[in-house]
């Protein structure tokens, strides 16, 4: 449902807009009993305006004190937590999607899914999520800016899927593709959301400056030396392997250009985070993504 007023992202869906919105339907249990109704109720509602897609999830729990949420780091591993996972197939090609996830502690996890099942969590974008524990379970509000996504002009139907995991019960409930043999990252099994009309992506220019610093403390003398300069060191093999500025400009909704001011060709000891190297990562990492023929 399209809305015209702002929604406060605080983890509490108490605005009249949420109350008036319909749920997207019941989830279906994938495990431990495929096809059964979930043991706990989950309500999912979707709203959008010109700038944001809002996803509200209420995870009811008959034993709210047993809800598990321990991780809070960006792109944390949530395998041992209760969690909500979301796929957005904005091109509706049933092979690639954006991935978002959170847990009861409000961790932000985002990434790309390529080639119908391969995940890359090195991709980060700007979005927001807030969660709240209640006497009825826990809830989450997502606000995903359209300017943080890529999608073709005029497309009003996207692929969509949502999964809820109740860790203590080893239970997963899904909106679509709730069969035991199907992984959640199989974008081909996602459902659809429709009527996404008149959305905007803004100017389409992203600028990400980098800085590197060093603090040296000498215990013998008590002296401290602090140095710094623009740029992020990507490797210890060469003093030249650094990037000062990462620029990305969206030429069209489905076409963008990325340009680091000084792309390096040295081995990096940290995961690559620059847009230039992450854009269309699925089509440029053939050795790890190519499937074997059967």
Give structural notes:
There is one protein chain. The chain is mainly beta. The chain folds into two domains: 178 residues, Immunoglobulin-like (Sandwich); 85 residues, no CATH class. Helices cover 4% and strands 38% of the residues. The strands form five sheets. Strands 1, 4, 5, 6, 7, 10, 11 and 12 form an eight-stranded antiparallel sheet that branches. The chain has a four-stranded antiparallel sheet with strand order 2-3-9-8, with no helix packed on it. The longest helix has 5 residues. The protein is globular and about 65 Å long.
Topology:
Blueprint: H1 16-20, E1 28-31, E2 42-48, E3 52-60, E4 83-89, E5 97-102, E6 109-114, E7 118-120, E8 128-134, E9 137-145, E10 158-166, E11 171-174, E12 191-193, E13 205-209, E14 211-217, E15 224-230, E16 232-233, E17 242-243, E18 245-252, E19 255-260, H2 275-278, H3 286-289
Antiparallel strand pairs: 1-11, 2-3, 3-9, 4-5, 4-10, 5-6, 6-7, 8-9, 10-11, 10-12, 13-18, 14-15, 16-17, 18-19
Mean pLDDT: 84
CATH architecture of the largest domain: Sandwich
Number of strands: 19
Structural class: mainly beta
Number of helical runs?
Answer: 3
As a percent range, the share of helical residues equals under 10%
**Low-pLDDT stretches:** 232-242, 283-294
Main sheet overview: 8 strands, antiparallel
Brief overview, please?
This protein is mostly beta strands. It has helices at residues 16-20, 275-278, 286-289; strands spanning 28-31, 42-48, 52-60, 83-89, 97-102, 109-114, 118-120, 128-134, 137-145, 158-166, 171-174, 191-193, 205-209, 211-217, 224-230, 232-233, 242-243, 245-252, 255-260.
């Amino acid at each position: 449902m399209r809305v015209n007023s702002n929604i406060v992202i605080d983890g509490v869906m108490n605005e009249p807009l949420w109350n008036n919105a319909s749920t997207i339907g019941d989830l279906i249990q994938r495990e431990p009993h495929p096809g059964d109704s979930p043991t706990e109720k989950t309500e999912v509602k979707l709203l959008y305006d010109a700038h944001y897609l809002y996803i509200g999830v209420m995870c009811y729990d008959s034993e709210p004190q047993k809800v598990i949420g321990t991780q809070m780091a960006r792109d944390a591993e949530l395998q041992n937590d209760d969690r909500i996972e979301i796929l957005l197939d904005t091109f509706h090609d049933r092979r690639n999607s954006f991935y978002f996830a959170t847990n009861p502690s409000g961790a932000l996890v985002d990434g790309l899914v390529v080639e119908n099942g391969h995940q890359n969590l090195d991709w980060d974008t700007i979005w927001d999520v807030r969660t709240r524990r209640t006497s009825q379970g826990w809830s989450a509000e997502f606000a995903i800016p359209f300017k943080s996504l890529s999608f073709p002009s005029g497309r009003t139907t996207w692929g969509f899927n949502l999964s809820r995991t109740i860790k203590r019960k080893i239970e997963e409930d899904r909106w679509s593709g709730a069969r035991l043999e199907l992984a959640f990252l199989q974008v081909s099994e996602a459902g659809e959301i429709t009527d996404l009309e008149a959305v905007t992506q803004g100017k389409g220019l992203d600028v990400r400056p980098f800085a590197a610093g060093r603090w040296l403390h000498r215990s013998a003398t008590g002296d401290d030396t602090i140095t710094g300069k623009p740029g992020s060191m990507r490797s210890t093999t060469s003093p030249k392997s650094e990037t000062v500025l990462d620029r990305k400009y969206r030429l069209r909704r489905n076409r963008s250009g990325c340009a680091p001011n000084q792309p390096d060709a040295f081995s990096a000891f940290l995961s690559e985070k620059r847009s230039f190297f992450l854009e269309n990562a699925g089509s440029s990492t053939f050795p790890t993504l190519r499937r074997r023929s059967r």
